[in-house]
From TrEMBL:
The keyword Lipid metabolism does not apply. This is AraC family transcriptional regulator. PROSITE patterns: HTH_ARAC_FAMILY_1, HTH_ARAC_FAMILY_2. GO terms for molecular function: DNA-binding transcription factor activity; sequence-specific DNA binding. Keywords: Activator, DNA-binding, Transcription, Transcription regulation. Residues 170-265 form the HTH araC/xylS-type domain. The lineage of its organism: Bacteria, Bacillati, Actinomycetota, Actinomycetes, Micrococcales. The keyword Cell wall biogenesis/degradation does not apply.
Amino acid sequence: MDAPVAAAPEFWHDPGFPEVESRRSARENSCYRSHTHDRFAIGIIDEGRSEFVGRSGTPVILEAGDVVFIPAGQLHQCNPVGGRWVYQMMLADETWLRDQVWTDGESISAAIQVHRSEKTREAFDVANAALYAGEGRETFAGLLRRAFCLAGTTEVLEPTPDAVVAQRLRPVLRLLAEQVGDPRVDELAAMVGMSRFQLIRAVRSATGLTPIAWRNDARVVRARALLRGGEPIASVAHVLGFADQSHFHRVFRAHVAATPGRYRR
């Protein structure tokens, strides 16, 4: 009897190439909560249709063949419409991209974009396949460089956030991301000279989320980095201040559409 063929991994990450991670997945049910990444995201829709919603709350339908660019920190959610949805998602550190891929010294726009070109989709597909095939960082960088050069017609899905508001809120967002205990909204507001309600409105305007929802998202971003680095799940839950491991699982799964254990493998 032939030995069973091992299923292809859904997630790719390598301690020897920490600047990049990837995912290849199929989903049939809506499962993503609005979230951000701390890296530049490249999404490829292979099959089916999905509804993309960004900070503005305006839904956009993505079709098979579309490639979406989502800069770091941009709020979004993307869920299937009417059945099975097959997609890929590469996440790359923006400093690494500027040094190794965007060789002209210019970065891609800070707005969320969709590119509708079969050549673009094929080029990014080849680059992602090279990661899973273990072809090395130099090969991947070259393939990714070629894919960006082939990027076709651009449609802006979401504008960039208000830079002035974002700058004013930076101390609040940093504290929300780094403090283990639950900060008081009144104290956060006082840090930037706002009332409680002004702060909530400002954070929602800048990020698309309330302060507490943004804090959960920031904790999941940190959790992903710790899990990629090999930290035990229980340790990650404790370090990031979750009530218990069950709470951590619920929040992580709502943002990543996978359990911490499945992501960490």
